[in-house]
Write a structure and sequence with these properties.
mainly alpha; 2 helices; elongated
Length: 80
């Protein structure tokens, strides 16, 4: 039983370290979309692509923040 607990703790630590990386990637995606939108001022197609990248970056940030909030709420409510 101790090995299972150690595995769960190790996986939890790994996930805890990957979360900031995922947030950083989503934020980088958003800023990449902004840069693409600004730098392609003459091309309507490239501006549309930049808008799409920004939108997906915002969606990713929103989803990750929402899931993080729900997990935190449940863990505090259940005393985990």
């Amino acid at each position: 039983m101790n090995n299972a607990n150690d595995l769960i703790i190790a996986v939890g630590k790994l996930i805890g370290q990957l979360i900031p990386v995922a947030f950083s990637a989503a934020l980088l995606l958003f800023f990449w979309g902004i840069a693409k939108f600004i730098l392609s001022a003459g091309s309507e197609e490239k501006q549309s692509e930049g808008k799409s990248i920004m939108l997906w970056g915002v969606i990713a940030l929103f989803v990750m923040t929402s899931i993080w909030g729900i997990v935190r709420f449940l863990s505090q409510s259940l005393g985990i």
